[in-house]
Amino acid sequence: MSVVLNRPLTLETPVEAADGAGGLTISWVPLGVVWGEVRASSGRETAGEEVQVASVNYRITVRGAVVGSPQRPRPEQRFRDGARIFLILAVTERDASAAYLTCFAREEEPT
Q: What is the pTM of this model?
C-alpha cells in the first residue's frame, strides 16, 4: 500500500510549569511541521466527567526518524492540524526499512 504524505501536521510536546499555587500547568510547544497521512481506524463513545466524549483512533504515517531524534514523534506528544488535536499513544516502524513510522493516535471531541 502506497503512502501519501499530504497533510502538514504540527508536532507538539508538553512542557510543565509551576502554576504558583503548588501545582503544575501543561503548555504545548511546537517542535516543527511534519507531513503525514491520516487514516481513521476505529471510534467509540464514552462518558467523560460531565459530557459524552466521542473518541476516534487514527493511524498517522510520517517519515521515519531514528530513536532519540527530535523529529521522531513520541507517545504523550501530539499532532495539531488546525483546531484538531491527535494525541500520540504509540509509535512504531511501518516496515523493516523504517522509511516511515506509524503513529497510533486518538482524537477526542465533546459531543
A: 0.82
- The region of weakest confidence among 11-15, 40-44, 98-102 is 40-44
- What letters, b where the CB count within 10 A reaches 16 and e where it falls short, cover 11-33? bbeeeeeeeeeeeeeeeeeeeee
Dist. CA 82–CA 77, nearest whole Å: 16
**Distance in angstroms (rounded) separating the CA atoms of residues 105 and 50:** 23
Which residue, among 88, 72, 2, has the nearest Cα to 32 in the 3D structure? 72
State yes or no: pLDDT of 96 exceeds 80: yes
* Rounded CA separation 16/37 (Å): 29
Q: How far apart are CA 12 and CA 105, in angstroms?
A: 13
